Amino acid sequence: MSGTGQQDANKWTYGVRVISNTIDRAKWRNTLTYRIHPRVTAGVEYNPLAGKVSPLANVVALTETHKRPALILGTSSDRIGTPFGQSFYATFSKSLKHQTGLPVAPYVGVAYGTFEDRFRVVGGLNINFNERWSSTILFDGVRVHPTANYTHGRHQFGVIFERGRHPGASYSISF
Q1: Per-residue confidence (pLDDT) for residue 1, from 0 to 100
Q2: What pLDDT does 81 receive?
Q3: For residue 92, what are the contacts with CB-CB under 8 A and spacing of at least 6?
Q4: Rounded to whole angstroms, how far apart are CA atoms 91 and 152?
Q5: End-to-end distance of the chain based on CA atoms, in angstroms?
Q6: Residue 175: CB partners within 8 Å, gap ≥ 6?
Q7: How far apart are CA 42 and CA 65, in angstroms?
Q8: Where do the domains of the chain lie, and which CATH numbers do they carry?
Q9: 20 vs 17, 51, 74, 78, CA distance in Å?
């Protein structure tokens, strides 16, 4: 289920993402997070081409049940395509596999971005094709960014199409 928190022994995750034809802050992103509790992570994001460092945090305030969605609160750099800024968000997510038999988990919420100094409605859909392959269609309140991911043990490899056009790649490892 989404919004259940992480239970494995790996507490640290390092991630890197590169995207072509976008602003410097989004071209090369590095993240390092630490899982303080199964429902709480904190870390840092570093964008070397823009010289930007920003905090990351994620809290599963309410875990998902068969009837109730999860409530997730957090902060990260502002949406892809902004040269600077921080985003603060609250989202509800719910796996619908129990209700529909389909491996989908939509999410919807609100985010406040400091770059534009405004609230946005955000949302998306996660599709788990099998244990290793998944896709997320992200709507950041302005644009849609489809992703596809392959997970193998502690490693995750991904592709993203920023605005549905500009290709990118990501990799993360948990340890």
Answers
A1: 47
A2: 86
A3: 69, 70, 71, 72, 107, 108, 109
A4: 27
A5: 22
A6: 10, 12, 13, 14, 154
A7: 24
A8: 12-174 (2.40.160.40)
A9: 10, 18, 27, 18
DSSP calls for 144-165? EEEEEEEEETTEEEEEEEETTT
What's the pLDDT score for residue 9? Answer: 85
pLDDT tens for each residue of 15-61: 999 999 889 999 999 999 999 999 999 999 999 999 999 999 999 99
pLDDT value at residue 6 = 60
Neighbours of 68 (CB within 10 A): 12
Instruction: Calculate the alpha carbon distances from 167 to 31, 71, 75, 142 in Å.
Output: 19, 30, 25, 18
Q: What is the spatial distance between Cα 138 and Cα 118, in angstroms, rounded to a whole number?
A: 19
Model pLDDT, residue 4: 60
Residues of the chain with pLDDT under 70: 1-7
E strands of the chain, at which residues? 12-19, 28-37, 40-47, 52-62, 70-77, 86-93, 104-113, 118-128, 133-139, 144-152, 155-162, 166-174
Tell the residue number behind the tokens 């809290």, with chain if given.
59
